[in-house]
Amino acid sequence: MKKIILPRRCLFGLAVTLGALALARPSQATAQVSAADFNAVKEMVQKLNDQVQSLTQSNLLVQQLHEQDQQKIKELEAKVDHTQQTADDAEQKSTAAAQAQTLPRTPIDEATVNHNFQILGDAEFQYGNADKQYGSFMLADFAPIFLYRGGDNILFEAGFDFILQNNGGTPGTLTDSHGDTLPTSNSSGYTTTINLSFAQLDYVMNDYLTLCAGNLLLPLGTYSERSAGWLNKFPDSPLARGLVPGTGVGAELRGAVPLGDAGKIFNYSIYGVNGPGSADGTGSASALDIAGGNVGYRSDGVMANLHDNPSGGGRLGVFFPFKPHYDLEMGISGQAGEWDNAGTHLWMAGVLDASLHLGPNIEAKGEYIVSRFGSDDLGMVHQQGWWVQAGYKLAGLNLELPGINNLELLGRYDSLRDGMGMTTRRTSVGCVYYLTGALLLEGDYEFINSTDPTQPATQFILQISYGF
Asked: Over the chain, what is the mean pLDDT?
């Protein structure tokens, strides 16, 4: 049992009281203690008892607080031990990781590497109705893209066009939304054609440089690489894109370099390709084959290139982001080289391109294209064209109406002067309805003003596009 230590003042009071009682005992023989004195002594004893009880309770409370403090100290010591153990484990893991990074990398075994293969692409189905012509379903186009990763640094990509269309029409005058010239003829019935749109092998040399070789998508502007096919929100290509080739067989060095840490990027490319050729081997202006006549062997076994020197070209561009969904890109590109089989005439072209995004709902882009080429019959031929288009997604209006958020309004103006007496200007208005993020219903109405009497004055095109 715990001892209770009384204050010195209480002990002195108790001794005085007991001494008074002892002195009073002899007088009891002669006289009785009065009631008042008895009550006073009783009250004094009661007060002493209360003080003893209060001191006992105070001591118990102090003891409880002391025990609680000891328990908290033990808990804190346990937490400190756990934290120290965690820090030691982390240090050991960091040391092990650093040691592992210093070990030499094992070369990748190309025979056992985990190869990746994907199929992407798009498909389009068109219905058209031109002025003074019968409306019809114009074409069905299936354009798969095969992607293959052969290692850390090796990529391969190839795109095809499977096109079903009527044979009627002027040969070589139609283009699809990919910018490819459709091989038409004047025979009856229909034709299914298969075109190799592009096929290139990419070797990533480092973070800023990639070597490409094959049938390349040429960076003359940005349309061929970023806007053709399903990415093009209009069913057909701008007129001026017929002045420059979309692809070429050769090799290319390309890459991008960051400008600071704000997201600005400088991108570049330089390439050498066979370039345009002559459709009939002559140097006549009408024989210029922009699509690329210098590929592979001729039927008589003669190899391309059919003239002395290949073409060279490149593009320089700058990308400026302001904030998310707000950015501007500008670029300049060009290409020059021989085009006729005799190697006596040059072809050259230059392109200025720009694109602008103002939030997620506003987009504008366009290109200005000029080209020059020499010929036997017309001398130097000067060609030029340009196009600009803009789109606005009605989701930016924040209207709670059915289907309104899936609709985008479009406008485009394009112009072409072929340098041989033909000038065409076209104004197109249209819209895109996004059935899903990949399934698009596109439509446009075109107003055409041309010196070519075979061109219709107006034209309506409806297209269903699916990207996968």
From this structure: 81
